[in-house]
Design a protein that fits this description.
This protein has 229 residues and is mainly alpha-helical. It contains 7 helices and 2 strands, in the order E-E-H-H-H-H-H-H-H. 70% of the residues lie in helices and 5% in strands. Its main location: membrane.
């Protein structure tokens, strides 16, 4: 198997700090692309969260017993609040990464997304809105640290394709949200008693957990992420 040397060096980016040590890895081409794919995976998660409620919109009023006015209001809120929160959090993403390190920040906010996803599984309107707000915090970090992290994983030769992969993963996340929604009842009224909506809302929690622990640790070649460092 062809191999290549990937050398990560510091630059003047605001997200670099002493927590992110210069590393030299001898890795196979397969492992290199594996790293790129997983560094881009935050885009799949973000796109899935964004696309999901387009598919659920006809079911939500039956699940939460909304009237027409409430449906218009709450669908607007659950779609816009995560983006609004993300825009605010993104302003601080670079500073937080400089202080705490990219790795820790991505792991921490993946778990915050797990928390937000868990809250949305509660069958209550306010829980749904609160959960989406919490998820918005993760959106802000994923949208700022994610692209830079992807570029830094890539060696110079593959900088271009890493950006392409990151964009493709967003499209895959949207597509995945539509595929997952095929299990919803054909009659939205049946969602009052059918709990499949909880399954498709809960899928990101499993993916977030895996992304936070397994893939980032694999990249840093550690068995356990040590939050004390």
């Amino acid at each position: 198997m062809d191999s290549l040397v990937l050398q990560q060096e510091y630059n003047n980016s605001s997200i670099n700090n002493d927590n992110d040590q210069k590393q030299l890895h001898q890795i196979s081409r397969f492992v290199f692309y594996f790293m790129i794919f997983h560094a881009s995976f935050t885009n799949v998660l973000m796109a899935y969260h964004i696309g999901l409620f387009n598919n659920l919109s006809d079911h939500l009023d039956y699940i939460y017993s909304w009237n027409l006015e409430q449906k218009i209001l709450y669908i607007s809120l659950i779609n816009s609040l995560p983006q609004f929160v993300a825009a605010i959090i993104a302003l601080f993403g670079g500073k937080w990464a400089q202080k705490h390190g990219r790795r820790k920040l991505l792991i921490i906010f993946n778990y915050i997304s797990v928390l937000g996803t868990g809250v949305t599984l509660i069958k209550h309107t306010y829980a749904l809105v609160a959960g989406r707000i919490i998820i918005g915090f993760s959106f802000g970090i994923w949208s700022t640290i994610g692209p830079l992290y992807t570029l830094e994983v890539a060696c110079k030769k593959y900088k271009g394709i890493s950006g392409v992969i990151y964009s493709i993963f967003f499209c895959l996340g949207i597509a995945f949200s539509y595929i997952a929604s095929y299990g919803l009842p054909s009659d939205p009224k049946q969602s009052q008693k059918n709990n499949f909506w909880r399954i498709i809302l809960g899928i990101p929690a499993v993916l977030d957990q895996n992304e936070a622990r397994k893939t980032l640790e694999k990249y840093y070649q550690q068995d356990i992420v040590d939050f004390s460092k």
